[in-house]
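Retry 2 of 3 after timeout on previous attempt. Resubmitting structure tokens to design endpoint.
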């Protein structure tokens, strides 16, 4: 909660927050009146966004140029290795084998001087116009699965095709998140647009019930990031 108080104080002073993940955005929205803030979205479907009052935040977009293919996790880990906190940078995007990252302008000099490698791979940073990805929308892999209910454990079981005991183990080991919070209740019923992630299997968005089968089961749609 200390972090939320910090952001609330910044907004009271007419300043912007830093990059907030979707969980932080949800919490902050619950503490603010709708007409007391605006939201800066770096691109159409961005996950990490910035709240502000009057002056739009200063953000830069970099393309990470590499002769070797890079993984999202490797880029993220290399940024964290520079002691750059998650609030200082936005989404990392991989689009048509090109790699992009959003960054607060206040970090620009440090980032350009120090972010020279991803793992053992040498990279080059090229600043791009923010308009380049303004209308970008993520590609999802649509999945249709048959389930007996909208319980999250049932839906996960159908997605990853594993036993009930393995599903119970995922929850026991705290490996399932819903809307960026730890999911403690395996019987939680998914609602439309809930985002859930399963450690080792990826992140998904629940789109809801498509139809019922003759046997009374549900055909539900899930989008895989």
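Retry 2 succeeded. Sequence:
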């Amino acid at each position: 909660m200390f972090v939320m108080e910090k952001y609330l104080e910044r907004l009271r002073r007419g300043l912007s927050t830093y990059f907030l993940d979707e969980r932080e955005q949800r919490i902050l929205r619950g503490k603010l009146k709708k007409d007391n803030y605006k939201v800066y979205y770096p691109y159409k479907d961005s996950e990490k966004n910035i709240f502000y009052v009057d002056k739009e935040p200063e953000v830069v977009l970099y393309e990470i140029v590499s002769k070797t293919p890079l993984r999202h996790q490797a880029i993220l880990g290399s940024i964290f290795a520079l002691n750059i906190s998650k609030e200082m940078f936005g989404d990392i995007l991989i689009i048509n084998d090109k790699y992009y990252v959003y960054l607060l302008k206040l970090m620009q000099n440090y980032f350009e001087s120090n972010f020279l490698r991803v793992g053992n791979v040498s990279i080059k940073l090229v600043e791009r116009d923010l308009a380049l990805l303004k209308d970008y929308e993520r590609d999802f892999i649509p999945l249709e699965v048959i389930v007996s209910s909208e319980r999250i454990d049932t839906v996960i079981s159908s997605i990853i095709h594993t036993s009930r005991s393995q599903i119970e183990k995922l929850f026991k080991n705290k490996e399932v998140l819903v809307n960026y919070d730890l999911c403690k209740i395996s019987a939680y019923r998914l609602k439309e647009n809930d985002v859930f992630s399963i450690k080792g299997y990826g992140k998904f968005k629940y789109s809801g019930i498509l139809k019922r089968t003759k046997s009374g089961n549900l055909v539900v749609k899930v989008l895989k990031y």
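Attempt log closed. The two ends are 29 Å apart (CA to CA).
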